[in-house]
Design a protein that fits this description.
Layout (H helix, E strand, L loop, with lengths): L1 H15 L2 H14 L7 H8 L5 H54 L1
Length: about 110
């Protein structure tokens, strides 16, 4: 009984959100196609506004390339930050050493 209620609630959710209508329209369009596409799944995805399989693969490759570039830039950024910290430490060390040496000469 509880399972049937969940199914009915889910069906109402799909209906009220327009999912059933959209799927029905796409399936009717596929049915009415004279020349059936070689990939029904790609047809459905394209009609629902998603990328085709080839577009998806191209986007995945682009994402992978961008991730590599990001990783390289992030590593360079970390190295630059490390060098900056070293230079700051060197400046502080040199500055404090000069102050200490200057005090010695004043006395």
């Amino acid at each position: 009984m509880e399972r049937e209620a969940k199914k009915e609630a889910f069906r109402k959710y799909l209906e009220s959100s327009g999912v059933l209508d959209a799927l029905t329209k796409v399936l009717v369009a596929l049915y009415e196609e004279n020349d059936k596409p070689s990939s029904a799944l790609e047809f459905v995805q394209q009609k629902l506004g998603g990328p085709s399989i080839s577009e998806y693969e191209k986007l995945q490759a682009e994402k992978s390339d961008l991730q590599l570039k990001y990783d390289e830039l992030f590593a360079a950024h970390r190295e630059t930050c490390r060098e900056l910290a070293e230079l700051r430490n060197l400046k502080l060390t040199t500055s404090s050493k000069e102050n200490t040496d200057g005090d010695k000469f004043k006395n």
